[in-house]
Amino acid sequence: MDLAVLASGYGSNLQAIIDAVQNREINGRVALVISDRKDAYALQRARDRGIETLFIDPHVHEGRDAYDTAIVEILHNRKIRLVILAGFMRLLTASFVQEFKGRIMNIHPSLLPAFPGLDGVKQALTYGVKVSGCTVHFVDEGLDTGPIILQEAVPVYDHDTEDSIHARIHRVEHRLYPRAIQLFIEGKLRLEGRRCLADEN
Length: 201
Ligand code: GRF
What we know:
Blueprint: E1 2-6, H1 12-22, E2 29-35, H2 41-48, E3 52-55, H3 64-77, E4 82-85, H4 94-99, E5 104-108, H5 120-127, E6 131-138, E7 148-155, H6 162-185, E8 189-192, E9 195-198
Parallel strand pairs: 1-2, 1-4, 2-3, 4-5
Antiparallel strand pairs: 5-6, 6-7, 8-9
Helix pairs in contact: 1-6
Bound molecules: 5-O-phosphono-beta-D-ribofuranosylamine.
C-alpha cells in the first residue's frame, strides 16, 4: 500500500514510520513526503532514504482551497491509499477530507478530546493535568475531532517542562503511530459511529 506523509517540521514521527517500513512492521511504502515548509527537516529525512519529496509552497497556491486541491491532485496521481499527517501544521479543507474520507490519520500530543489544536502539550501543562499522552485519530472536518484509533497515557511530574513531557510523548508516538498504520493496512480498523474498533488478533 502506498502511503504519503505530510509534515511541517522535525519529522521524528516520519522517521519512526520509515523505520517501521524498513523493519516490516508496516507492510506499506512511504511513496511520498509533502511539506508546506521548504526547510522542514522531515524532507531531509525522506531524501536520505531515497523517498520522493515535494515542497508545496502555500504562497504559490493562494488560499486553503487552491492549496489543498493541488495536494489532492498529487495524491490521486500517485495512487496514495493512506494520508498520514505527522506534525503537518495546516488544517485540511473539508473537500480534502471528503476526497480521502476515512483514509487520513493524524497524531496529536494530548489525550483528545482534551487540548486539541496548537500547543497541546503546553495547554495540558498549563492546565495542571497529572496525566497526558497522545492520540492517533482519523481526520474529519473538525480540529482534532475525528474517531480515535489508538491512545496512550504518559505521566506528568511536578518537575516536568513542556519539553520533557513532549519528549516522553514522542517516545510513545513513535510506537503508536506505526501500529495504527499497520492496523489500517491490515484492514483491522472498523468504525461503529464515533468508535473505532481495532481487531488486533
Ligand atoms: C508530534 O508531537 C505530533 O503529535 C504533533 O506534532 C508533533 C510532530 O513531531 N502533531 P515530529 O515532527 O514528528 O517530530
